[in-house]
């Protein structure tokens, strides 16, 4: 009996089971990736080359949707707002995250609790964060207005003023996502070798010299990865703006994600919205590759 | 011999798998699960709005008595249009009935995703309908300009009016002691006296948030100044002299006489201002007005009255009715249509009026005891004048473009006329791209 099973197994192996087995094992995972990643991407690309009317495709338009973007004042404005938002938010998050990580590198009483507390904002749901900030910023019943009135001042105008609303959005993002930077950079700092630092101390180097000559250069790859990851993520910011300002006042906080969402789902210009998102995807990819190349060049020099 | 049964891990897994398979099979085959409630199932999608409170509290229980098993799914206004449109277009079949905002009817109509309710047996010729309301249920519209592609199509009843909401004036009777102010100038002048007397903080409060909210607040002022939105060829004419005067009044005079944060005000802040006793007057739909006599919901119960919207040239309000459509993908289509027939009957409409909601049949306005003081005023407003927004599938985009420019002018406190010029150009460009001309 056992000999028969063995013989059948060998016959199957002879038929190529050994060769096929790895692919068979990969097939379920690959099917899922194709289904949820490659197909939607392909479908989006196809949609971006079509004109839609009343939610249905009516004509093939080639690259027209892509060309139209660059004469669409609303798209250009949203792109500019997004670039400003990403640049400001990610810069503040990187600086603050690095500073906090350096501070929390030291061991002292209560440090574990502090590290835990510092990462709380990033585990709160973005929509909840936006609602909380709305309750802080609202000019009629917000916390800032209540504080101002308690001190004899008037209503604080955040969400009704374009500049203030934009800054308010950046503050929200920095509050929520600095912990991510902090976490990545703290892990990076903790993994640095001790020897160079001990040698520097023996040589009498001060704190600034150690930071400038050792910590920062050694942390540069980690910092770059953190910044690239956060930049990609920040380009897709949606929930907070949707709840906090819905893009207003005027178009002051209308990020590209909000404009794309409205274009696709509210105005039912599916093809145009697909072209918009493909373009943004390419812009983000280009930015990420440029950052990585720049980093490599700096490291090489 | 006793048979002993032991609960083993294997038996639990086998049992669980069996149950999961059976549930999946039953669901796939469309068979009702054994525990499911009996009754004619109708899944209603609605956006959260106080105007539907009487329906939820009084009419749904009545419907249950009539054998309907109502599932009422509510969402925030800002996401319902896109959610339902995706549901209807993909044929997902998550709803049996949408309670749409009336400007969305053309969008659903043009996409051909709603059932023909006339063919389903709903009588649109019944003289008891409020004419302007039932007209909104047709696509393409029976009157007025039609968009390209639908010029010669036969109008089909794809929606029926559900709650006859329209804008009216809510005012403080201790500020406007001579009754409802007749003109906008009177609103401002008497409102200022109320502020000086310490009765209120602001003569008027409105919505200033970009997009739909600010356009909703500006529209009755625009109509009262005698403005028209499009000509019969879809050319934007809202930047006429009357339109510009209304926009200048709105972003200038009205802003000077309202809360400093009005640019960020939506319906919740607007409602809080009148119910909290801060505002002298607001133009609003029925949602907050229904709370005017409830001391638990207002600080000024007994001091709020309703009237026809003020005028400069005309006293015309914006209609914004809840209107019901049955998606072609509805899983319980027959039940939905049966439910609608029962709901729009004169008897049920009378019950709706008794419950305090604005009905859609004229007979229900005349019942002995309407459940809310607002109902007879709503009828006065209908008779004085109430217009729907233009019947185009692109209204959402038009409203967005106009709303952004109006909001910018409101921030500045001036330049309403120039904002309309900019918006008119943007609207014309957009509609040109969309093939309107």
From TrEMBL, chain A:
Stretches that traverse the bilayer: 21-42, 85-105, 117-137, 165-189, 210-232, 272-295
InterPro entries xrefs: MetI-like, MetI-like_sf
Membrane protein topology class: Multi-pass membrane protein
PROSITE patterns in UniProt: ABC_TM1
Domain spans labelled ABC transmembrane type-1: 75-293
Pfam families reported in the protein's UniProt record: BPD_transp_1
Chief location category: membrane
CDD domains according to UniProt: TM_PBP2 (cd06261)
Domain of life: Bacteria
Cell compartment(s), UniProt: Cell membrane
Keyword set, alphabetical order: Cell membrane, Membrane, Transmembrane, Transmembrane helix, Transport
GO BP terms in the entry: transmembrane transport
Gene Ontology terms: cellular component: plasma membrane
Family to which this protein belongs: Belongs to the binding-protein-dependent transport system permease family.
Identification of the protein by name: Sugar ABC transporter permease
Taxon lineage: Bacteria, Pseudomonadati, Pseudomonadota, Alphaproteobacteria, Hyphomicrobiales
From TrEMBL, chain B:
Transport among keywords: yes
Localization of this protein: Periplasm
One GO cellular component term: periplasmic space
Keywords from the named record: Periplasm, Signal, Transport
Domain of life: Bacteria
Pfam families reported in the protein's UniProt record: SBP_bac_1
Chief subcellular location: periplasm
Statement: the UniProt record of this protein carries the keyword Signal: yes
Similarity annotation: Belongs to the bacterial solute-binding protein 1 family.
Name under which the protein is recorded: Sugar ABC transporter substrate-binding protein
